[in-house]
C-alpha cells in the first residue's frame, strides 16, 4: 500500500503480512504462514523499495520512499520474537516494529463463513 503526503511529497510504503492460520474462501484451513520467513520476506521487499528507488519510481510518483513500514498481523499460537537478519536492521527509513497480535475468539470461523456465503 502506498500513501503520499501531498504537503511535502513524502511517500510511505506499507507492506502487510499475516502470520498464522487462516480460512480460505473455499473453507480450507491455510497454515503456510506459521513461521518468521513471511515477515522476513516482507522486510526484504521493503528494503528493495527503499534501496532501489529508481526501479520503482513510476509506482512511487517519482518521489523517494520517505518511510517503509512493515505491518505484521500475528495470529500464531505462540509468541516469539521475530529475528530479522542484520542487513535489514538499522535502516533509518525502514520500520519493522509494527506487530499486532490477534486475540482468539471462541467462535467457529467456518460457521461464520458458511452463514455469510448463503
Quick overview:
By secondary structure, the chain is an alpha/beta fold.
Explain what the structure shows.
The chain is an alpha/beta fold. The protein has one domain. The protein is built from three helices and six strands, in the order ββββααββα. The chain has helices at about 35-50, 55, 110-115, and strands spanning about 1-5, 10-20, 20-25, 30, 65-75, 95-100. The strands form two sheets. The protein has a four-stranded mixed β-sheet with strand order 1-2-5-6. A two-stranded antiparallel sheet has the order 3-4. A hairpin with a 4-residue loop joins strand 1 and strand 2. About 10% of the residues are buried. The model has no long low-confidence stretch (mean pLDDT about 85).
Keywords summarizing the entry:
alpha/beta; two-stranded antiparallel ribbon
**Radius of gyration computed on alpha carbons:** 17 Å
Number of alpha- plus pi-helical segments: 3
**How many beta-strand runs?**
6
Q: Tell me roughly what share of residues is in helical segments.
A: 10-25%
Q: Cα distance, first to last residue?
A: 31 Å
Biggest beta-sheet profile: 4 strands, mixed
- List the secondary-structure elements in sequence, H or E: EEEEHHEEH
- Report strand %: 25-35%
Mean pLDDT: 84
Secondary-structure class: alpha/beta
Low-pLDDT segments, ≥5 res? none
| Approximate shape | globular
What is the domain tally? 1
Q: In what order do the strands lie side by side in the largest sheet? A: 1-2-5-6
Amino acid at each position: 500500500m502506498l500513501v503520499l503526503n501531498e504537503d511535502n511529497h513524502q511517500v510511505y510504503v506499507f507492506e502487510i503480512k499475516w502470520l498464522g492460520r487462516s480460512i480460505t474462501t473455499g473453507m480450507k484451513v491455510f497454515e503456510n504462514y506459521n513461521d518468521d520467513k513471511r515477515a522476513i520476506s516482507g522486510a526484504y521487499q521493503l528494503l528493495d523499495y527503499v534501496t532501489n528507488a529508481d526501479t520503482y519510481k513510476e509506482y512511487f510518483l517519482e518521489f523517494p520512499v520517505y518511510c517503509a513500514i512493515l505491518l505484521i498481523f500475528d495470529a500464531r499460537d505462540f509468541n516469539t520474537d521475530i529475528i530479522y537478519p542484520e542487513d535489514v536492521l538499522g535502516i533509518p527509513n525502514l520500520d519493522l516494529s509494527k506487530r499486532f497480535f490477534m486475540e482468539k475468539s471462541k467462535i467457529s470461523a467456518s460457521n461464520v463463513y458458511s452463514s455469510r456465503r448463503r
